[in-house]
Design a protein that fits this description.
Helices cover 53% and strands 0% of the residues. The chain has 258 residues and is mostly helical. It folds into 2 domains: 84 residues, Homeodomain-like (Arc Repressor Mutant, subunit A), CATH 1.10.10.60; 118 residues, Tetracycline Repressor, domain 2, CATH 1.10.357. The longest helix is centred in the last third of the chain and has 29 residues. The protein is flat. About 2% of the residues have low confidence. Keywords: DNA-binding, Transcription, Transcription regulation.
C-alpha cells in the first residue's frame, strides 16, 4: 500500500461508506498509542495472507491479531472494525499494473487490457469476489476507475457515456471473475454451487424434446452444452468480445456524425 494524496479538501462534507476514511489516511497512522512494529499495512498484509491461505471466512480481528502476535484490542488502534479491515484488504490486493499505459494504443486494446488485468486479480485472490458488499472506495479502486476512463479519453462521446461503459464493464468483470474462480476451484476438485457449473447438458436432455425445443436439441446434439464437447471459444474472452463489440457499435453511433 502506498500513501495517497488523499481525497479533496471538501470530501469531509460527504458521508463516506465504512472503511473508506481509513483507506485515505496517511500510511501507518494509529488512532491512538502507537505500538512498535504494528501498522495498518502490516495488519492488512496479515489478513490478506490468511484469506489467501485459508479463505475469507478465516479472517477475523482475533485471527489477525494472533498471526501478528498482539492482542485483538491492539489492532483497533489502527483499524476501527472488521468491515474497515475488509475494505483495506480489497484495496490492497488491487494495485494498478506497474507497466505504464501506452496512450498511442487504440481505445479497445486499452480497455480490454484493463478488463483482463482485473480478472487476473480474481485468480490471484479468489476470495475477492466474496467482497461484493464492501462499498469502500480506496486509492487503488479510484485508480482503476481513472484508468478505465482514460482508455476512452480520445473518443468523442459524452463523459456520461464513457462512465456508463466503464461501470457496465466493471459489473461484468465481477460476475466473470466469480465464475472464473468457481471453475478453477471445480478443476481442483473443490465443491462449488455456482450456476455456471451446473450440468446443463444432462438437465436439458431430461426436460426438453425435439418437437418443442428444436434449437436446444440441435445444440445438445452438437455437444454445445457438454464440457467434453467441442469448444471453439475462449470462455473468459467471449464475454469481453461480445461486450466490447457492443461498446464499439455504441460509440460509433454516439460519435458526431455517427
Amino acid at each position: 500500500m502506498t500513501e495517497s494524496q488523499g481525497p479533496p479538501a471538501d470530501a469531509g462534507e460527504v458521508t463516506l461508506p465504512p472503511g473508506t476514511a481509513e483507506l485515505w489516511q496517511p500510511a501507518g497512522r494509529p488512532r491512538r498509542g502507537p505500538r512498535p512494529g504494528l501498522s495498518v499495512e502490516a495488519i492488512t498484509r496479515a489478513a490478506i495472507d490468511i484469506a489467501d491461505g485459508e479463505g475469507l471466512a478465516a479472517v477475523s480481528m482475533a485471527r489477525v491479531a494472533k498471526a501478528l502476535g498482539v492482542t485483538t484490542m491492539a489492532l483497533y488502534r489502527y483499524v476501527a472494525s472488521k468491515e474497515a479491515l475488509l475494505a483495506l484488504m480489497l484495496d490492497a490486493i488491487a494495485p494498478l499494473p506497474e507497466e505504464p499505459e501506452d496512450p498511442a494504443l487504440p481505445w479497445r486494446v486499452r480497455l480490454e487490457t484493463w478488463c483482463r488485468d482485473q480478472l487476473a486479480l480474481f485468480v490471484e485472490h479468489p476470495w475477492m469476489g466474496q467482497l461484493v458488499g464492501v462499498a469502500a472506495v480506496g486509492p487503488n479502486r479510484v485508480g482503476w476507475i481513472e484508468r478505465g476512463l482514460r482508455a476512452l479519453e480520445d473518443v468523442r462521446v459524452s463523459e456520461g457515456l464513457k462512465t456508463a461503459i466503464v461501470g457496465r464493464l466493471s459489473l461484468h468483470l465481477l460476475t466473470e471473475g466469480q465464475m472464473l474462480v468457481a471453475m478453477r476451484a471445480a478443476d481442483a476438485g473443490a465443491d462449488s454451487d455456482h450456476p455456471a457449473l451446473l450440468d446443463f447438458n444432462a438437465m436439458l436432455r431430461a426436460v426438453t424434446n425435439p418437437q418443442d425445443h428444436p434449437a436446444i436439441t440441435a445444440a445438445l446434439d452438437a455437444g454445445a452444452f457438454s464440457n467434453d464437447g467441442p469448444n471453439d471459444v475462449d470462455d473468459a474472452g467471449l464475454g469481453l468480445t461480445i461486450l466490447l463489440d457492443g461498446v464499439e457499435a455504441l460509440l460509433r453511433r454516439a460519435a458526431p456524425g455517427g
